[in-house]
Amino acid sequence: MRIGFSSVCLSGMNFEELVNWASDNGFKALELEAYEGSDHCNVDDGLSDEEAERMNRIAEENDVIISNLQYAPNMLHPDDEKRKHNHDHLKKVIDACDKLDNCEAITTFIGRDPSRGIQENLEFMEEEYGHLVDYAKKKDVKLAIENCPMGFYFPDRFETGNIAYSPSIWERIFDVYGPTVGLAFDPSHLLWQGIDIRRSLREFMDRVYIVHGKDCMIDDENLARDGILNSEWVDALFVGKTGPGHRNIEWKSPVDQWWRYTIPGLGDIDFKGIFQEIEMQGYDFVVIIEHEDPVWYGNERLNKQGLKIGLKNLSQLLPQTGYGEIEKE
């Protein structure tokens, strides 16, 4: 098993700089963001064979695998033109994954039309998502749906959404689609929803293709005062984004939130228990640190420090020969 990180928090680096830094600091895997205009995996005009070859060579020389790509806009966007753009770009990301050694999956979303309820969105998904699943299946690429609710929608600023946030909905999605569709399992989203993390892993381990190492902490004082329905957390979580994905997040002070994401090991999630569970279930691919901790986020130096803290905390839980790699007999 390898520990890596999602590259979007280091969007100021180019691919080679990113891989070199990852290798020099003990990381063994990368989830490369592949949004429009990406400096890590640019597929705007399609990833050329030459560029894929170069990326594979650099990764191999540094003993870092490109385990998966990330592209997670709203695949059920209510605007036909924007939805088509997202679908077309995802297909380019799938093509890129097919060309990259060791790349097994795309971390993405199902999406959500905010004008529809869950059942209506599931029906809309059956109309709109199937051709993407078929395309990925032909390329032998998995669609790993991150279980983030993304339960807010601000036109022209933050037009995302995702219905795949709970086990009961995963079950309904998997009833429609075969094993091409699975999970980028992120425990942080389950904690604040009150969903049992290890039980969810046991039930859906055969559809877990990527594991995200992201922690979450509950502020009991804020929760006792504001309750779970307090909408202030939306603005406290992030007030704006200046680029696709999570590039250049502007964070507000986290003190107003009753929950917030943290570096793994700094929150309330039992990662020792998670590692025990995935080991028992036979998962041996990657754990990807998705860095969204506002305390350790804000510039490249701070973001790197947060990643290194996460690696140190997670690597202590793995019986390994080097950071992030387990030696099995």
Automatic annotation (TrEMBL):
Tell me where in this chain the Xylose isomerase-like TIM barrel domain is found: 20-307
One Pfam annotation reads AP_endonuc_2
InterPro entries, alphabetized: IolE/XylAMocC-like, Xyl_isomerase-like_sf, Xyl_isomerase-like_TIM-brl
PANTHER family assigned: HYDROXYPYRUVATE ISOMERASE, XYLOSE ISOMERASE-LIKE TIM BARREL DOMAIN-CONTAINING PROTEIN
Q: Under what name is this protein listed?
A: Xylose isomerase-like TIM barrel domain-containing protein
Q: Which organism is it from?
A: candidate division MSBL1 archaeon SCGC-AAA259J03
